[in-house]
Amino acid sequence: MKIHPDKINAQSIYGYGPGWVQVANEKITHSVILSSRGERIDWGCESFADLTVRHFDQLARLQTELVIFGSGERLRFVSPALTQTLIQQQIGMETMDTQAACRTYNILAAEGRHVAVALLMR
């Protein structure tokens, strides 16, 4: 029996730190959405205070089974009023700090789940 390392077909986050994540060979320093199906979208949101319904509607259009929201350097929860489209479409959302969101996304994407991670860098 041959044993081979698992081959991950989804894009992965290779590193992270305060204010940045690394995807492939690129260091990203702005808020971004990544999908296990390969989408990479500039999120257009500088900080937690800038979040609007429009930002979460954009996530709902990805039609994933789960959105992982990385709220920055510390855990912060958004108002349910902002996530109504996700709720109506029965798309789950988990909130965690950005570094935990990176780790969770990698695990779920490697399992073949259709997930997206929305990362705030501040």
Strand order of the largest sheet: 5-4-8-6-7
**Strands, total number:** 8
In DSSP terms, counting alpha (H) and pi (I) runs of 4 or more, how many helices? Answer: 3
Q: What class, by secondary structure content? A: alpha/beta
Distance between the termini: 47 Å
Q: What is the H/E string?
A: EEEEEHEHEHE
Mean pLDDT: 92
Largest beta-sheet characterization: 5 strands, mixed
| Percentage of residues assigned to helices | 10-25%
Radius of gyration, in angstroms, nearest whole number: 14 Å
General form: globular
Task: Pick out the low-confidence regions.
Answer: 1-5
> How much of the sequence is in beta strands?
25-35%
Describe this structure in words.
There is one protein chain. With 122 residues, this protein is α/β, with parallel strands linked by helices. 21% of the residues lie in helices and 28% in strands. The chain is built from three helices and eight strands, in the order E-E-E-E-E-H-E-H-E-H-E. It has helices spanning 53-60, 84-88, 98-110; strands at residues 13-17, 20-23, 26-28, 32-35, 40-42, 66-70, 92-96, 115-119. The chain has a five-stranded mixed sheet, with helices on one face. Strands 1-2-3 form a three-stranded antiparallel sheet, with helices on one face. The longest helix is centred in the C-terminal third of the chain and has 13 residues, at 98-110. The model is unreliable at 1-5 (pLDDT under 50).
